[in-house]
Q: What sequence folds into this?
């Protein structure tokens, strides 16, 4: 079941964005049933053992799906984001969401992880977990 805070986040979006986010949340929950879901820094995020794995957020004109370790997935559908190992996909319409790609990315998110949980303690240095 989708966490109540994530449901609330999605309900506050405009209709098209809500459809995108509801679908993302459903697929993420199905593929990562062991993950903890909560709203973190004002956006829905899923964690494995306290480490952020995947989340999404509403930007000005689109929804951004973010994988914290996504640059290590070697996937053309994901674009680098930020100075660490994150990668993203962006959606402006629900029909842009390719569920086959999303399921593959989520499997990689479980298997390929960088230790974001301890990044502050390590003064910005990331270490590979899996």
A:
């Amino acid at each position: 079941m989708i966490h109540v805070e994530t449901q609330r986040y999605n309900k506050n979006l405009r209709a098209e964005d809500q459809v995108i986010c509801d679908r993302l949340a459903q697929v993420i929950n199905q593929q990562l049933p062991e993950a903890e879901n909560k709203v973190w820094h004002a956006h829905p995020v899923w964690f494995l053992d306290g480490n952020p794995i995947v989340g999404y957020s509403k930007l000005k004109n689109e929804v951004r799906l973010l994988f914290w370790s996504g640059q290590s997935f070697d996937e053309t559908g994901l674009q680098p984001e930020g100075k660490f190992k994150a990668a993203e996909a962006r959606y402006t319409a629900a029909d842009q969401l390719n569920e086959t790609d999303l399921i593959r990315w989520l499997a990689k998110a479980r298997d390929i992880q960088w230790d974001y949980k301890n990044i502050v303690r390590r003064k910005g240095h990331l270490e590979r977990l899996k």
User: Anything to note?
Assistant: The chain has three helices and six strands. The helical segments are 4-11, 15-31, 99-111.
